[in-house]
Amino acid sequence: MFSVTVRDHMMIAHSFSGEVFGPAQRLHGATYVVDATFRRAQLDADGIVVDIGRASEELHAVLAELTYRNLDDEPEFAGMNTSTEALARVVADRLADRVQAGALAGELDSLVVTLHESHIAWASYERPL
What we know:
CATH architecture: 2-Layer Sandwich
CATH superfamily: 6-pyruvoyl tetrahydropterin synthase/QueD
Radius of gyration: 16 Å
Strand content: 25-35%
CATH class: Alpha Beta
Number of helices: 2
Shape: elongated
Distance between the termini: 14 Å
Structural class: alpha+beta
Number of domains: 1
Order of helices and strands: EEHEHEE
């Protein structure tokens, strides 16, 4: 399996519901380094997995929809703990929608989105395309 990863970042504000989150139940900010890894079994006719420039642009566009937002105020996240794991899935699903709409040419097999919460902790979500 071949893969190409592109990286960007996003800054959000949010809070959590549940004692397990301790002080993070209060409104706080988070800056995530976000990796999107595109995978395919065979390289395309040009010898690539995906155009890195286009993949970077699409990831940036997805993250721009979330950056500088208080996710607690966004109706689509109502009642949801926007944990690192949950946000990895949101970003992956939105990126997959763009891929399936033809934003990136080629027959990609899967996508993995990883949100790095810090230099020692991160979470990923993998999905087929």
